[in-house]
Amino acid sequence: MRYVLDACALLAFLNKEDGWEKVRGLLTEAVDSGDTQVCMNSVNLLEVYYDRLRLDNAFKLGEFLMCAFESPIRIIDTFPRPLLDEAARIKAFYRRVSLADAIGIATAFCAGGIFVTSDHHELDAVNAREAVRFLWIR
Asked: Which residues, 6+ apart, have CB-to-CB distance to 10 below 8 Å?
């Protein structure tokens, strides 16, 4: 199984907010099982980084990226045409969805994965109408 993390899912894990245990379970499963893969688009990772930097302006990008790339999370930093097309379509059709969320959803869709998030207020409409699968952490 392939899971694609939204920024809010990784932030919940890092901050031990509601739902963090679900993300921990996915990461543990990714380490323990060859069948589970946890991914994240680099744009969504950027959201986590700037959130951390906003809270602590001494936060170091290098240290953050080292931790991110040493984790079981596979960072997707390419934007093939199908991903760009799907992200643009989602953003155009669902105005409340941020560009970063549209990219994360498109990443999950193109990878045949499940988008892991807590953003019901923005994404319930996408969940109801689109073929991409969601895992809600709260």
From this structure: 23, 40, 44, 45, 48, 73
